[in-house]
Design goal:
Structural class of chain C: alpha/beta
Structural class of chain B: mainly alpha
Strand content of chain C: 25-35%
Radius of gyration of chain B: 20 Å
Helix content of chain C: 25-40%
Shape of chain B: globular
Number of domains of chain B: 1
Largest sheet of chain B: none
Order of helices and strands of chain C: EEEHEEEHHHEHEHEEHH
Strand content of chain B: under 5%
Number of strands of chain C: 10
Largest interface: A-B, 33 and 41 residues
Oligomer: heterotrimer
Largest sheet of chain C: 6 strands, mixed
Distance between the termini of chain C: 34 Å
Number of strands of chain B: 0
Shape of chain C: globular
Strand order of the largest sheet of chain C: 6-7-8-3-9-10
């Protein structure tokens, strides 16, 4: 898997190299735009420019109709010049390849329900770089359609945080591939990062928090990787669906609270790797539905309501070397029958012993409590949590299992935290 | 007889109570348990969670059993004082305070020392720690009041004591079993509001829900009904629960005073 | 001093007091006499407010009692069986009552001396013998030199020496102008102490009046015989 990733990285790097060579290779000129100067419109500067030119935008406020970038230019803001959409139009549309946008502040893009209006839309382009910009109060932030080989990095995107229907997504990708999204911060949008029909892309080191729906939301996006991101306190957590060969490594899913809120919702995700992530204080750490042949390893599940909820239609998943600590329920399921396997995880609720001192408990651990089954059937009974009656019931079921899935057991529970 | 006189009665009651040393044992029990929980769980939240489970079981049991025995044992003392110029209601409150204050005091000292020593009152678990100790005190008051009512209702000690233990079993185990049956039978109906009402009608459940709100809200928030989200997501839920507990102290207490005033000694 | 009108008290089905009318006169010893379970103790407890009647009025010193409690300032009560908190010492109980009533209680101390109880005062009450507890019981009644004394079977459980000592004490109190109500079923004792008599049978007052009048009206010189004669007479 890693070798595949490296190969892909290499190809992407090459592509970017080619792009930058194209830009610098043209030996373009420098154009300066300033609000007081003779050239005070970015749009006008682009119309004058030749492919390969650089446009330096000085500090100031620029109110212009939608700026069309149809040439391979580099637009660099000095001290964050403000491009104000005045709550109405889209601010910038890129349709040419090899465009770089850097150091600009986009403001006030109005809500509309007829089009996906964005602060910066890149449509049908390749080899673009969008770096270190600020986007404030935009309907959509950065919107990529039919785009490939682009890098979005270091951008700060702060949505208006009104309501779910009145906001767009922070970073929105549609029918794109080979995109790198690195070290951006997204807050107050509908979905922080949204992928639909995206392939071979990477999401690394981003922070997506306090968004109105999902911190990360992708569908039909195969072979994408998500590394070292933080998804925190999003209204509905993170939801990923209908994708294959996804790699989610080293991410943090934190403080995603509420009913139908998930640290990570996996719906019809197959052949993917969920490795080395941390799930802290989520109502539900991982919710897996129709997810098959996925590997969950080296994850920490700490202080969640449910660490893992795995439905019977999720098959052949493999949980190993995970830590389950201080969760109300470690594993919940809706059936006695299923085919996911748990092995060599650490469970703080394990009360067995290790007489042969091999580091593994001598009796299997059954992580599904009877009470979690009861709650699964009638949700209101959650109010009986920690009642003496329920504790007695759980103890009886533990001694003589009759309702909880006896196949769902960790045969080799690890005694100490991994 | 004024408040000063009540204080005198309490003073003599206490001399009696402290001489028998069980208050000390009670405080020691909580001291050892709390300390052990902090030591073995390693985390403050987990220790508080464990402690609250113990509080919800032990405090009602000890309060109702001791309360019943205490009032039967206080019978001679009561008769002695009732022949004196003493107002019955005030004597009753004296007897009530005479037991509830040492009981809740022992609990507060026993559980409180480890909590305070570990900075439980300044760190993030402060609310939870305060609510836990507060619920413990309120449960003491509730179950002593219930015990007094039982002891006044049944002249026969053995019968009174049996009723007390049965009432404890009812509130801590049977009641929740019945709730579970109701919930399963009516699973197809919207049950949020009846469920909340059912929780309010049992003081142990009420205290438990109050503590869960602060220690394990993540699980409670997993419920998809809007009623729970509203109740648990707001300060209103906590205030309602505390108010409910206060009502639970008041009602049996007033009923007991009423009975005490009319009782033949 | 105390006027009882139409007093009714029943425990469940059992009518213990069935419309009692009785006057207890000031500065005299009134003996409430009757067979076991005739309602003597209940009558006293009603006056003390320990037991609440279903109907009827008790007027104490001109004021009807209805849940009042302050009048007990003037009352000393010696219950039939002394029951004390076992862990407390007699001295602590004396102290408590003194603090509670804010009265000096010198009288009781003199009785203590008379009973030679000093060594027993610092032992837990639970460890004391029945007789000693009964002595302390008596002391508590006399402690604050009250105007009215209710003594329920005062000599029961006392040894003859202490019993006669107590009887002397009662006589002295009567001579001091105290109103005393006592119950007893020992006729000789009543003969010795009582000025007035109330004979209870089945919760009713069957005979009431001064001992002298009762004896005169029957021509008997023993109270016991006089009463017997009246009862036989009423039966006819």
């Amino acid at each position: 898997m890693h070798r595949v990733l490296c190969a892909r990285r290499l190809s992407r790097l090459l592509a970017l190299l080619v792009a930058s060579v194209t830009v610098t290779g043209a030996l373009g000129q420098h154009v300066v735009v300033s609000s007081e100067g003779p050239l005070h419109s970015i749009g006008a500067a682009i119309r004058q420019a030749q492919p390969g030119d650089s446009i330096l935008v000085l500090k100031g406020v620029y109110n212009e109709p939608t700026i069309l970038v149809d040439k391979a230019v580099t637009i660099i803001g000095k001290d964050f010049p403000v491009l104000d959409g005045k709550g109405e139009n889209q601010i910038m549309t890129v349709v040419a390849d090899s465009v770089t946008i850097q150091g600009l502040e986009f403001r006030n893009v109005g809500v509309t329900f007829v089009e996906d209006r964005a602060a910066l839309k890149i449509d049908g382009a390749a080899f673009c770089r969008v770096e270190d910009n600020r986007i404030i109060d935009a309907y959509f932030g950065i919107y990529l359609a039919r785009t490939s080989f682009c890098r979005l990095s270091g951008n700060t995107i702060q949505g208006s945080g009104l309501t779910e229907t009145r906001s767009g997504n922070g970073i929105h990708l549609w029918y794109s591939k080979e995109i790198e999204i690195v070290s951006n911060e997204i807050r107050g949008h509908r979905d922080g990062i949204y992928f639909e029909f995206v392939e071979d892309s990477a999401v690394i080191d981003n922070i997506s928090e306090s968004n109105l729906r999902y911190g990360l939301h992708f569908m039909f996006s195969d072979r994408c990787t998500y590394h070292s991101n933080v998804f925190r306190a999003n209204d509905a957590g993170v939801a990923v669906m209908y994708s294959e060969n996804v790699e989610m490594v080293g991410n943090r899913f934190e403080h995603n609270w509420g009913s139908a809120v998930f640290g990570l919702l996996l719906k019809d995700i197959t052949d993917s790797i969920i490795d080395d992530n941390v799930f802290v204080k989520n109502t539900i750490g991982i919710y897996a539905e129709g997810a098959n042949r996925n590997v969950f390893e080296h994850n920490d599940f700490i202080e969640n309501g449910w660490a893992v909820k795995i439905m019977a239609n999720a098959q052949d998943n493999w949980f190993t070397h995970n830590n389950f600590i201080d969760n109300t329920f470690d594993v919940a399921t809706n059936s006695r029958h299923h085919s996911s396997r748990f092995s060599k995880n650490h469970w703080d609720a394990y009360q067995g012993y290790d007489l042969d001192r091999d580091g593994y408990g001598d009796i299997p651990f059954h992580p599904v409590r009877l009470f979690s089954l009861i709650v699964e059937r009638t949700e209101t009974s959650i109010l009986l949590l920690r009642s003496l009656f329920i504790q007695v019931l759980d103890a009886v079921e533990h001694t003589l299992p009759s309702l909880t899935p006896d196949t769902l057991a960790d045969e080799m529970p690890v005694m100490v935290r991994l | 007889m004024n408040l000063r006189a009540v204080a005198k009665v309490i003073k003599y009651e206490w001399r009696d109570i402290f001489r028998s040393r069980w208050t000390l044992l009670y405080a020691l029990f909580f001291l050892v348990t709390t300390e052990a929980l902090f030591r073995f769980t390693g985390s403050g939240a987990k220790a508080l969670l464990g402690l609250s489970s113990i509080v919800l079981v032990i405090i009602p049991l000890v309060s109702i059993v001791f309360g019943t025995i205490y009032l039967y044992n206080a019978r001679p003392f009561t008769e002695l004082l009732l022949a004196q110029p003493v107002n019955r209601a005030i004597l009753f409150y004296g007897l009530f305070a005479g037991l509830t204050l040492p009981l809740s005091g022992s609990f507060l000292i026993g559980a409180g020392i480890p909590i305070v020593l570990r900075g439980g009152l300044v760190d993030t678990h402060m609310t939870a720690a305060l609510l836990m100790t507060g619920s413990g005190v309120l449960l003491t008051f509730i179950f002593v009041a219930l015990a007094f009512f039982i002891a006044l209702r049944f002249e026969d000690r053995l019968r009174g004591l049996s009723v007390s233990v049965l009432l404890w079993i009812f509130f801590s185990v049977v009641y929740d079993g019945l709730v579970l049956v109701i919930v399963s039978v009516f699973a197809n109906y919207p049950l949020e509001k009846p469920m909340l009402a059912l929780m309010i009608l049992n003081p142990i459940d009420l205290a438990r829900v109050l503590l869960l709100l602060n220690l394990e809200a993540s699980a409670l928030m997993g419920y998809t009904g809007a009623v729970f989200e509203q109740f648990f997501g707001s300060l209103g839920g906590v205030i309602t629960a505390i108010a409910g507990l206060v009502v639970w102290v008041t009602v049996p207490l007033i009923a007991s005073v009423w009975k005490f005033k009319r009782k033949d000694f | 001093m105390i006027e009882i009108v139409g007093l009714v008290k029943s425990f469940g089905q059992l009518n213990v007091l069935d419309k009692i009318d009785l006057q207890i006169k000031r500065k005299r010893v009134t003996a409430v006499v009757g067979p076991n379970a005739s309602g003597k103790t209940t009558l006293i407890k009603c006056i003390l407010g320990l037991t609440r009647q279903q109907a009827g009025t008790i007027i104490f010193d001109g004021k009807p009692l209805d849940g009042a409690w302050d009048y007990r300032r003037h009352i000393g009560y010696m219950p039939q069986i002394a029951r004390f908190p076992d862990h407390l010492k007699a001295r602590e109980i004396l102290m408590l009552l003194k603090e509670l009533r804010d009265q000096p209680g010198a009288k009781g101390e003199r009785l203590c001396e008379a009973f030679q109880l000093d060594s027993e005062l610092d032992k837990p009450l639970g460890t004391l013998s029945g007789g000693t507890r009964q002595k302390i019981n008596a002391i508590l009644a006399f402690l604050f030199d009250p105007d009215v004394l209710f003594l329920d079977e005062p000599t029961a459980g006392l040894d003859p020496v202490a019993g006669s000592l107590l009887k002397d004490w009662i006589m002295r109190e009567r001579d001091d102008g105290k109103t005393i109500v006592l119950t007893s079923h020992i006729m000789s004792e009543i003969e010795e102490l009582a000025d007035d008599l109330a004979f209870l049978v089945n919760g009713r007052v069957s005979i009431a009046g001064s001992a002298v009048d009762i004896k005169n009206s029957t021509g008997e010189d023993k109270l016991e015989r006089a009463i017997a004669q009246i009862i036989v007479g009423t039966k006819d």
